[in-house]
Amino acid sequence: MVHKSQNPRQKAVEILSGVLGRNKPLKMLLTDDVLSRFDKSDRGFLLEIVYGVLRNLYFIDWLLEGFYKNKKKLSVYTINNLRCAVYQLIFMRVPEYAAVFEAVNIEKIYGEKTSAVNAILRNFLRKYKKEGVPQAEHLSIKYSHPEWLISRWLKRFPENEIEAFLKANNEKPPFTIAVKPEERNKVTFYLNSKGFKTNLTKYSPSGLIVEGQGYEIRKTLMESSFFWIVQDEASQLACFLLQPFNGLTVLDACASPGGKTLLTAVLMKKGRIICLEKNRVRMKILKENIERLKKFLPDIEIETILADARHCENVLQKNLKFERIIVDAPCSSLGVIRRNPDVRYRVSEREIERLSKTQRLILEKVSSFLSPNGILVYSVCSTEPEEGEQVINNFLQKHDEFCSIKMLRTYPHIHGMDGFYIAKLLKTE
Q: Which residues does the entry assign to the active site, renumbered to this chain (predicted)?
């Protein structure tokens, strides 16, 4: 039985057990509501443990492997309790007595293997105090990425670049927001006055990189009078490639959580956006985000429709045409591992194949609603060509009336952005 607690170590064990034991997405478990229950120090401690364990999971398990007598008898909570303790000992330099004492106390709450936890951690410390912590040579263990994914990347990149890529995936990503381009200096001044350091993004005229704890930054911005959304620079670039301007009619085919809808609306200033979203929970999030920011968009009409973009012809009038279409297609999210470290453990090659078929179908269906001389921007936060280049090449081979204007690839280790593929297409007829 899981007990609710304000102990950050215990909450970390609970969250990791949900992610690694029940395959729950991290962002569903580590919400602002959960974070609000902790003070700033404990919140930072919780985040460090959860993200740290997920970013170093294979390495931690490799270190622990020789200390289990019968791992099958240990519950998912006990194993994650041990992982959290080892992360604190190796990466956070938490005093030995504190890490072991807290791990044993947490084990008591679950009524599990207190003596086993104590013995494993004591033996672990005894061995590595004497011999030192070994360095893993295998890339999969060293950087905690699945072998199948590294094998894929080794076919496309040299090994030294792969290592830089893997390292970037395990680093804390920047906290990036999008604001109105004309207000970027004002937002910078506001955040600086509240004690946050900021930097302008290199490519997006809307972007600001803010140093600090994400929860604290969001809380501070909520008290401001500015339009803002949390959005990586790569995602912002997709909106600028759309070339939105006053008076357009836009379709956002896979809209939730609404970042591209809202930044596009800000850049348009006046016009209409129709948003499609097939998932009811994600639709709720989309509507909440639009509701929060609609006061900044008085001349934008935003309509949300609960519908699957693969069957958009069922909800859109046949003669309806859009000057701009955004297809931010559902994807593997392998380009945002640094933000969502659990993704690497949830996605499979089979999933990439399935998603590629979905992406092709969505693009095929929504493209028929683009008006002549209209622009369609296709984007995915994936590193894989099956979800990016191959989708677009397949589409262009079938449609002579479309041409490619621009294609972008971004990578965290090269551009400091999330891994994205973005294609800008023009309908010529």
A: 381
